[in-house]
Each structure stands twice: as C-alpha cells, then as structure tokens.
C-alpha cells in the first residue's frame, strides 16, 4: 500500500510515521521547505517521546519520505490523509482554508482511485466540502477519476501519541461506500491484531465523534474542578471523593483529576468550536458553555491562593515555577495555565523563576525576558518566597525536600496538581496549598 499524509504537524507526523512503522510506503507532504529539509535530516518540529528514533528508522529503511511536492505523492496513492491545521478563527469556529486548499491540490493531481481522508479535527460537514472541492478541480481538468472521501478522527494524546496510535482503544472511520471501507480496513489491519475495534459509521457521525469525545473529557475535568473547589469550602478531600466516585465503572478513574484547568491545542479549541457550530445552527450547548467558563476561572485558582496566603502583598516576591508546558511529556505551551499564572504574578509585581524539563525554549519564544529561566528545578528555588507546581512532570514528584527548604527563603508550596501529601509537607514545616483540600 502507498499513502500520502499532507501536513507534518503533530497529527500528520505521528500518523505517517506509525503507518511506515508497520511497513506501509508513506510520503509526508508539507509546504514548509525548511520543515521538510529538517525532517529529512531527522530533526523534528515537535517534542514527542520516541518519535525522533521512529522517524529516523523508517527514513533509513526507505519507507518514510518527506517532500513539498503534493503531485508526486498523491498521483498513485491508495489513501491520502489531510492532516493540516484548523486554527480557530476570531469567533471560535475552525478555519478550513488549509484543509480545502489541500483538497483542491489533490483534485488537481489525482490519477487513479483513492480514498481522501480528513484526519484533522474538522466540523461536521467538512468531508462533503472536501468532496466538492476535489470534484471541482477534477472537472476543471476534464477528468472523471473515481474517488471516495472518509473521516478518520484521531484520538492521540500529546506525550503518549505513538502508543495511542499503535495500540488504539478504537479506530473511528466515517465512510460512504463499501470500497472505501475495504481500503480503510486493509490499511488499519496491522493495528487491529490485539482486538482493538475499528468502528465504521457514516461520515457526519465520525466527524461529530471527535468533538463529542474531547467535549466529554473536558466536561469531566471542569466538573471535577468545580467539585474540588466546593470540597475545599466544605472541608471535604477531593482526592477521597475522586477515588470514591472513580471506582464506579460508569464514571471511571480517568480524567477526573482536578487541577489548574485543561490546556493544550485540543480541548480549548474543540470545546469552543462545538459551542460555535451549535450556535450557528440555532442550538445552545449550555453544559459546554459552563465547562469553558469553569476552566477559565480554574486557571486563576493557584494565583488566588498565592494572593490570599500573602494577604495581597505580592509586590517584590520571588516566585519559583515548576513546569510550564500544559501537561507533562510535551513542550507544547498552547493555552497552558502557566501563561495565565505568570501574567497575573508579573502584574502583581512578583519576579518569576521557572523551570521545565523540555518547554524552556518554547516558553522563551512566548515570554521573552519577562521571567528568569532556571537551569534546573533547584536553581529556580534559590531565595524564592513560594514554589508553584504547575505541571506534574515525574521528576517533580519526589524532590529532596531538605534541599528544597534550604534553598527557599520562605517554605511555601502551592501545588496545582495535587502531587504531594499534605500531611507530609506540613510535618516538614512547609505551608502547603493544593486543589480541593483545606490546608
Ligand atoms: C486530547 C485528548 O485526550 C486526545 O484523545 C485527543 O486526540 C487530543 O486532545 C486531540 O484532540 O488532538 P491532549 O490535548 O494531548 O489530548 O492532552 P490530554 O492528555 O487529554 O490533556 C488535556 C488537558 O487536560 C491537560 O491540560 C491536562 O492537564 C488536563 N487534565 C487531564 C486534567 O486537568 N485532569 C485530568 O484528569 C486529565
């Protein structure tokens, strides 16, 4: 089989590389020449555990190619994936100009039957627009080549993307012909060996499934953050409540960890887009509007605790921050709660010294010299009046607290991810604040 993947962002790169890993001939296309040159050298535009080695291995084996030439890649491919960005417009709706431009390009170069698959997260109805765009381009050429469109949303988590792709919980594919279903079954067969199901459905349902999945997960998180805030007021312990409800299989143990709000490039964008799509079609997604508003407030919760602890006298304090990325194992800073926290600290007159195991460069792009970048987690603590744990990187979980307390000016910890034990920290002489537990 031969496939083309257009767009070498997060989704496209992981998708193309993982298909190459099972022996399929893959060409990844991008219009950015520098990105393609780098990829040919094994230099990746993103950090994702294990991906660099996998790219290099498959390039060396001659199964994975990178190019800026759409024509050569789509001419005789069995499947072409569209995996370009759908950035949110001003009003929150997904901007489809890149997706449709690729569809046009495919229509201009297609030479035999192919399945054109949308992999980017796109609103319901997009595959139909892709089909129309390809038909238009074919008509212009005076050609009537047969093709199908399909929707195959991805459910990869940054930081665990390779495992998610190779061992998926499920694969969702929206199709409108048996021929396309056969091609997609053949393509995904290597990933179905351990009983992971491939679920075929109509195209609009597949498109909606992606949004509904992310919206449901975001809802779980905002719900838990709301419960955590109430636990704190009422003297309950959200960790206990979480374990108590999570053991009910109908609720489940995952994605009910309270914290400082969800971030990243997916939940915030997709929740907004779904609210917007509904609104445009005369429906009000009331629950999702609340999910979004709880999340906006939650990003300020840690700062509010700092302000309360120091009775509003924040000017001149030195604050250490552990973690900048929106979650561990990624350098992604998009919609990261750290950005909101840092802005509030700076406005209040604090100085900030931050450390993140991989997101330092990314942070410097966004924040410049407004904060100090520590060389490691302990360097960030020197003379600090407080430590804020913002991202739960594994290396922050069991620090040497004797060193921590020696380095800090004041022994105060604000734990935005509930990774420490309140009783232990109190015994060690720290003032300790976390989410959803009175301290
Ligand atoms: C999310 C989905 O989990 C993927 O299935 C989906 O494919 C992806 O979006 C996408 O649409 O591309 P991702 O954004 O990489 O993946 O990250 P998650 O691991 O889902 O975390 C999202 C946010 O939720 C993070 O800020 C995290 O800290 C927060 N979170 C997660 C919590 O606050 N509590 C939890 O219990 C779990």
From TrEMBL:
Its EC number is 1.1.1.22. InterPro entries: 6-PGluconate_DH-like_C_sf, NAD(P)-bd_dom_sf, UDP-Glc/GDP-Man, UDP-Glc/GDP-Man_DH_C, UDP-Glc/GDP-Man_DH_C_sf, UDP-Glc/GDP-Man_DH_dimer, UDP-Glc/GDP-Man_DH_N, UDPglc_DH_bac. It is an enzyme of class 1 (oxidoreductase). It holds the Pfam family UDPG_MGDP_dh. Substrate binds at residues 155-158, 210, 255-259, 263, 327. Keywords: NAD, Oxidoreductase. The active site is at residue 266. Gene3D superfamilies: Cytochrome c1, transmembrane anchor, C-terminal (1.20.5.100), NAD(P)-binding Rossmann-like Domain (3.40.50.720). GO terms for biological process: polysaccharide biosynthetic process. Residues 320-422 form the UDP-glucose/GDP-mannose dehydrogenase C-terminal domain. Belongs to the UDP-glucose/GDP-mannose dehydrogenase family. PANTHER family: UDP-GLUCOSE 6-DEHYDROGENASE TUAD (PTHR43750). This is UDP-glucose 6-dehydrogenase.
């Amino acid at each position: 089989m031969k496939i083309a993947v257009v767009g070498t962002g997060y989704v496209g790169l992981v998708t193309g590389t993982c298909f190459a890993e099972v022996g399929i001939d893959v060409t990844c296309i991008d219009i950015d020449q520098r990105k393609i040159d780098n990829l040919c050298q094994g230099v990746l535009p993103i950090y994702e555990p294990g991906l660099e080695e996998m790219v290099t291995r498959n390039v060396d084996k001659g199964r994975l190619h990178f190019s800026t030439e759409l024509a050569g890649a789509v001419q005789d491919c069995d499947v072409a994936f569209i995996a370009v960005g759908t950035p949110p417009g001003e009003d929150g709706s997904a901007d489809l100009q890149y997706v449709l431009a690729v569809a046009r390009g495919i229509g201009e170069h297609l030479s035999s039957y192919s399945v054109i698959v949308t992999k980017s997260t796109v609103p319901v109805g997009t595959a139909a627009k892709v089909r129309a765009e390809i038909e238009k381009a074919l008509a212009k050429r005076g050609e009537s080549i047969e093709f199908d469109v399909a929707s195959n949303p991805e459910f990869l988590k940054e930081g665990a993307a390779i495992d998610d792709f190779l061992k998926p919980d499920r694969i969702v594919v929206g199709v409108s012909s048996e021929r396309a279903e056969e091609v997609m079954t053949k393509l995904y067969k290597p990933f179905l060996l351990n009983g992971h199901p491939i679920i075929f459905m109509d195209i609009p349902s597949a498109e909606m499934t992606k949004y509904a999945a992310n919206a449901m997960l975001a809802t779980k998180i905002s719900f838990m953050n709301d419960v955590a805030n109430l636990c704190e007021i009422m003297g309950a312990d959200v960790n206990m409540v979480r374990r108590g409800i999570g053991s009910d299989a109908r609720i489940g143990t995952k994605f009910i960890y309270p914290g400082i709000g969800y971030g990243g490039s997916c939940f915030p964008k997709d929740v907004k887009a779904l609210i917007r799509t509904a609104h445009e079609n005369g429906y009000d997604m009331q629950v999702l509007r609340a999910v979004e508003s709880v999340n906006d407030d939650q990003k300020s919760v840690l700062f509010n605790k700092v302000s309360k602890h120091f009775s509003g006298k924040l000017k001149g304090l030195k604050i250490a921050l552990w973690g900048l990325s929106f979650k561990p194992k990624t350098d992604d800073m998009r919609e990261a709660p750290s950005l909101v926290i840092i802005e509030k600290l700076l406005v209040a007159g604090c100085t900030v010294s931050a450390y993140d195991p991989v997101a330092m460069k990314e942070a410097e792009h966004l924040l410049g010299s407004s904060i100090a970048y520590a060389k490691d987690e302990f360097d960030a603590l020197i003379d600090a009046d407080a430590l804020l744990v913002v991202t739960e990187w594994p290396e922050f979980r069991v620090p040497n607290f004797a060193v921590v307390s020696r380095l800090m000016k004041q022994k105060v910890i604000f734990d935005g991810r509930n990774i420490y034990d309140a009783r232990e920290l109190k015994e060690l002489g720290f003032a300790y604040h976390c989410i959803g537990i009175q301290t």
